[in-house]
Design a protein that fits this description.
Structural class: alpha+beta
Number of helices: 17
Largest sheet: 8 strands, antiparallel
Shape: globular
Distance between the termini: 48 Å
Length: 629
């Protein structure tokens, strides 16, 4: 991970097998991903930093310069968006070099530095008085919990909120090179160290019953940046034994737990494995990833209903309007990157690709660049998006970040190998090797990928290309116009080792077919996929209203009427065989004859924005006239 933390000192204990490239080394070329990034950038610049800084100034005793935004920014969790905003600005600057984002970062950090001086004890943020008083009270051993989200008096997840601020400042320091952000970050980290040091082990575990975000991850990053062990010890204070012990021992006890409370904790343990050699952190992370992706995730890559995990392998009864919280997938992708660095396996990026294409890319709408909170899998419902100024849910904050970093995982590398994980049009500039690689593709609209090599001088290198598990028959290759036989290794990567020269062109053909995937607990509920894409039924446009498509609260449309959902009666035919691609209509498919009533139109889930839709279908035998309950 030190490639993302350019100032890392030599404290890393665990060696990674591969590393990502810095954001600036990979440029997105025209594609739906770059379009999403550009929409997001426009929204980031449209936001008024003085409005996001309103509470930070007001509670520091300074006059606000902008009126407060609405939604969550006017509640006890105020300030979480400010932190996400700094991270998103920093990632956008790191990815593009656009000076507008660096200037915006510098302004926000200057304002936060002024607020920090006014607060006087190293704290900076936008927490309302009750939440800040709660944090400061930890110095005196005052830890009284009211459930999983509140301390005494109703203080709402202050560590969760403060983690976003700390992470945003750290990213401004590292990704944007802002020296003042380093100073503000370390003072805030010292405040966190000071208020948690007096707590007994029992008091710390009591404190950790309340959602606390990724505190351990960011403090571990700061340790890696500075080498100061006090930050390592502070990170370890956020080890939540009740959650980690079962994972360490290999038990899936996730049912009933708030999903996105847990994922950042696990990322923190993964980071502590990397920077301090905490081997338990690796076991925790690997076990958790297996449980969530194999036993708790829907076909789009998302997980949870109503923000909570259900029993393992029991998903068919959990298809409601509040499925697949977007923050969860944001964090699961972060976790997947860590695991891939330790053991580069195509399995990790098969999941990553599925979640990225279907959930993350499908979570942003194209008109205003707004974000989903939940991605409904309720049959016949639709997506609900945030408003520009009066929502600011957690998934708005993580959404701001999602669309700034599509270039961060397309390629990874070791000293002698280059991994192509994702088939996204892009240009890689591997300066250390003197290599420019251009990837051109219309994937997954078609299965053709072209890699053009332009090394400064002949370069001996292993090129490793992910073979998706679903790609029946494997990949086909042509090098400089001639077919070459390339076998896939057990880890799912096809490897070509040779001396690459300027002008070399490798063409990769990925077989794309329609297939089905059934619910783990109900073989009669199936979803359709085409390559990495989930195909959803387009059930017609949703009439606009006060809450459609943009809502202040994420649940505003939970009880809206749904569209009628057909059932499938394929008879003796293989279900995938009744799906036909419509010529000249992009990735539009039709189901005729097997749909009741029919016919049925299928389109990529990530391209359905304003229509009713359905993902999981009830499949009936000819004698049935309704789904089994």
């Amino acid at each position: 991970m030190c490639v993302l933390l350019a100032a890392c000192v030599s404290v890393v204990r665990a060696q990674s097998a591969v590393e990502p490239f810095a954001l600036r080394q990979v440029a997105l070329l025209p594609s739906p991903f770059r379009a999403a990034m550009e929409r997001n950038a426009k929204y980031l610049l449209a936001l008024d930093p003085d409005r996001l800084l309103h509470n930070a100034r007001e509670y520091a005793g300074l006059k606000p310069k902008g009126r407060l935004y609405g939604g969550w920014e006017s509640k006890g969790i105020a300030g979480h968006t400010l932190g996400h905003y700094l991270t998103a600005l920093s990632q956008q600057y790191a990815a593009t070099g656009d000076p507008r984002f660096r200037s915006r970062i510098a302004y926000v950090v200057r304002e936060m530095a002024e607020c920090q001086r006014a607060y006087g004890d190293g704290y900076v943020g936008a927490l309302p008085p009750l939440e800040l008083q709660t944090l400061r009270g930890f110095r005196d051993g005052k830890v009284e919990v009211q459930g999983g989200f509140n301390f005494k008096g109703g203080a709402w997840v202050p560590w969760y909120t403060e983690h976003k601020v700390l992470a945003g400042l750290k990213d401004a320091w590292v990704l944007a090179g802002n020296a003042q952000a380093k100073e503000v970050t370390l003072k805030l980290a010292d405040f966190i160290e000071g208020v948690t040091r007096p707590l007994s082990p029992e008091q710390r575990q009591q404190m950790l019953r309340v959602e606390h975000g990724g505190m351990s991850e960011t403090l571990a990053d700061i340790y890696a940046l500075t080498g100061d062990r006090k930050y390592l010890e502070t990170a370890r204070r956020f080890y939540h034994e009740a959650m980690m012990s079962p994972l360490l021992e290999g038990r899936d006890e996730l049912a009933g737990k708030h999903a996105n409370t847990q994922i950042p904790k696990v990322i923190g343990e993964a980071r502590l494995y990397e920077v301090a050699g905490d081997t338990g952190g690796r076991r925790i992370a690997e076990n958790f990833w297996e449980y969530v992706t194999r036993r708790h995730s829907y076909v789009i890559g998302g997980n949870s209903e109503g923000e909570h995990f259900g029993p393992p392998d029991e998903l068919s009864k959990h298809l409601g309007p509040a499925t697949a919280e977007s923050c969860n997938t944001y964090n699961m992708l972060k976790l997947t990157r860590h695991l891939f660095e330790w053991r580069p396996s195509a399995d990790y990026f098969d999941f990553y690709e599925r979640a990225l294409y279907n959930h993350i890319l499908g979570s942003q709408e194209p008109r205003r660049g707004m974000y989903t909170y939940f991605v409904s899998l309720n049959p016949g419902l639709f997506k609900t998006y945030s408003t520009p100024e009066n929502s600011f849910w957690c998934c708005v904050g993580s959404g701001m970040e999602n669309h700034t970093k599509y270039n961060d995982s397309i390629y990874f590398h070791s000293a002698e190998a280059l991994y192509v994980n994702l088939f996204i049009p892009s240009r890689l500039n591997w300066g250390e090797k003197g290599l420019v690689l251009v990837q051109q593709t219309g994937y997954p609209r078609d299965g053709r990928v072209v890699l053009r090599f332009a090394p400064e001088r002949p370069l001996t290198l292993s090129l490793r290309i992910r073979t998706p598990r679903w790609a029946a028959g494997g990949l086909r290759f042509r090098l400089n116009g001639r077919p070459v036989n390339v076998a896939s290794a057990p880890d799912g990567y096809a490897e070509i080792r040779r001396t690459w020269r300027a002008g070399d062109v490798l063409q990769v053909t990925i077989p794309l077919t329609v297939r089905t995937e059934a619910m783990p607990d109900d073989a009669s509920k199936v979803a359709f996929l085409y390559g990495p894409l989930v195909l959803a039924g387009d059930l017609g446009p949703v009439p606009a209203s006060e809450t459609v498509q943009y809502a202040v609260e994420q649940w505003d449309n939970f009880k809206r009427p749904t569209a009628a959902v057909p059932v499938l009666v394929p008879g003796s035919k293989d279900l995938a065989s009744v799906v036909r691609r419509v010529p000249g209509k992009g990735l539009t498919f039709r189901v005729e004859g097997a749909a009741r009533p029919g016919p049925l139109t299928l389109r990529p889930f990530n391209e359905i924005f304003y229509d009713y839709y359905n993902v999981y279908w009830d499949v009936l035998t000819p004698g049935q006239n309704r789904p089994r309950q």
